[in-house]
Amino acid sequence: LGSFVIFQIVSDIAVPMGSFDAGIPLVGADLVRLGKVPVIDFQVVYPPLVNYLFAGAFHLLGRTDLIQQALCAPLYLAVIVWIARFFWLQGSPLRLLVPFMVLPVALGIGPSIPYSSWPASALGLLAVLTYAGCLDRTQAGVMHRMALVTAGSLAGLASMFRVNVGIYAIAAMGIEVVVSEGFAGDSIPIKVR
């Protein structure tokens, strides 16, 4: 599994930039480096975090389109590790099969790494996985609260890359809360609270 992940990351360096919207963050980063402010001095389709992030990376590493891969590779690695951790914690008797459960997921999301929407998708997925990982815990301890804060923060960060992805992650978590609270036999209905 580890060698596949490394192979996927290295092979994505050779993937040419997409013709649809892959260059938008790079152009926005150039404009930010020239002192322009997104939304005020130039129109942006997506939230401006990626423009500032890429502009900072341009300043540190030079002006190259490999900045996007440099950002996306650690996120891909984090998603794979988080999914493996999730499967490890959820399936006690199946722990030996975790690499085989994670490999199809890695195969499925691997080709999307070069796309400019990948950072938002990865952060949204990390938010939902973090939230799902704390669902089985019966006590509301500090670590449980930290997991909830982390999930919400990741969803918020995802919405700073792409608004819709952050909203999807927050909606998924919110729907789970409504369904679990609404159908729990011993809980007070939500409308009464």
Main attributes of the structure:
mainly alpha; 193 residues; globular
Low-confidence runs = none
What is the radius of gyration computed over CA atoms, rounded to a whole number of angstroms? Answer: 19 Å
Structural class call reads mainly alpha
Molecular shape? globular
Strand content: under 5%
Description:
By secondary structure, the protein is mainly α. The chain has helices at residues 2-11, 24-33, 49-61, 66-90, 98-109, 118-133, 142-161, 163-183. Helix 4 (66-90) runs antiparallel to helix 5, helix 6 (118-133) runs parallel beside helix 8 and helix 7 runs antiparallel to helix 8. The longest helix has 25 residues, at 66-90. The mean pLDDT is 83.
Task: Give the secondary structure arrangement, pairings included.
Elements: H1 2-11, H2 24-33, H3 49-61, H4 66-90, H5 98-109, H6 118-133, H7 142-161, H8 163-183
Helix pairs in contact: 2-3, 4-5, 4-6, 6-7, 6-8, 7-8
Q: How would you sum up this structure in a few lines?
A:
The protein is 66% helix and 0% strand. The chain is built from eight helices and no strands.
